[in-house]
Specification:
about 180 residues; alpha+beta; 7-stranded antiparallel sheet; 5 helices
Length: about 180
């Protein structure tokens, strides 16, 4: 039994667990077309409560050619406690940022696929370490926040950073504070 003067700590969903939640799985089957990439989940309060936000973009794959990722045309947010869908929107109806400055992004194949995988795993691990502090308004060590920012910049090859910043501006402001 919890004493009445103590608020129990919330159990935040970890970013790597989001793929197992029904709401995201159902969206992938029904509303996110095949041939689309889903972005990394970013913590945000943009929906008025702690959530993870994603954007989705069509991609073109041709043998021997770099991947072409189109401008995101939809985005979604999932509650960080319940895993319920909070927002699913087409950017033509409810944009998450100023898409007029974004372009198709060319993502060259990396000869270091294992390195890219390791980097994405590091990013998710660091996201899981920092997201509860972000959601609860606590300041984490500057070194930890800077490392998260560097991981996001490296993983997105700086090309998708404007989209990520538009998706979760509060998270980036927190990282840079």
């Amino acid at each position: 039994m919890t004493p009445t003067n103590i608020t129990p700590t919330k159990q935040w969903i970890k970013s790597r667990e989001l793929g197992r939640h029904h709401s995201l799985d159902a969206l992938r089957r029904t509303d996110i077309p095949s041939g689309y990439l889903l972005s990394l989940p970013l913590p945000t309060h943009r929906c008025g409560r702690p959530a993870y936000a994603f954007f989705a973009s069509a991609v073109s794959r041709h043998p021997g050619q770099p991947l072409q990722q189109q401008i995101p045309d939809r985005w979604l947010a999932i509650d960080a406690v319940t895993g319920h869908l909070l927002v699913y929107a087409l950017t033509t109806v409810f944009p998450f940022g100023d898409t007029s400055t974004w372009n198709t992004v060319t993502i060259a194949p990396s000869p270091l696929q294992n390195e890219a995988y390791r980097l994405s795993e590091q990013t998710l691990d660091q996201m899981d370490r920092l997201s509860s502090d972000f959601f609860e308004g606590r300041i984490t060590e500057m070194q930890e926040r800077r490392w998260m920012l560097e991981l996001l910049q490296t993983l997105s090859a700086h090309q998708l950073l404007p989209q990520y910043r538009a998706l979760a501006p509060d998270f980036f402001q927190w990282l840079e504070s």
